[in-house]
Design goal:
mainly beta, 9 strands
């Protein structure tokens, strides 16, 4: 009886791992000036999926002034549509879920999750802060690959 149960668990485990490996992927282009360790796709309500860009690093380019950002400054562009971050349920402490302020030369390291249609397979990340400047007074945006 124990061996039958063990065999059934092994079969279920193999089925789950093969289903997980067949999960769809989304290629996300990250603009120069931002870095990321990669992208994963996570389950969501029917017809949608979470595209999670992991370990996104954004550095305040000014060494003299603090600069703020809004959650909506981060956008995932898929075709003609733009999506703003949507934290995954119960993961608001891991995914970026609120506006913030970075001190001079401070960096933000976070996950960005976007709720998008399942058919998506290519996207571009943009970061469009309203009033970010480097130390020389040049306006900074991270987009337009």
């Amino acid at each position: 009886m124990i061996f039958r149960t063990l065999a059934a668990l092994v079969a279920i485990s193999a089925t789950l791992s093969s289903a997980a490996s067949a999960a769809p992927s989304v290629t996300v282009r990250v603009p120069r000036g931002l870095t990321s360790s990669g992208t994963i796709v996570d389950g969501a309500p029917a017809g949608q999926e979470y595209v999670v860009i992991e370990n996104v690093r954004v550095k305040n380019p000014s060494n003299t002034r603090p600069q703020s950002y809004l959650l909506t400054d981060f956008q995932l562009v898929i075709g003609e549509k733009r999506y703003t971050p949507t934290p995954r349920p119960h993961l608001g402490a891991i995914d970026l879920s609120q506006n913030g302020l970075l001190s001079p030369n401070e960096a933000l390291n976070t996950n960005l999750s976007f709720l998008v249609p399942i058919e998506s397979n290519r996207a571009t990340l943009e970061f469009l802060p309203a009033d970010w400047y480097d130390s020389y007074g040049t306006r900074i945006v991270y987009c337009c690959i």
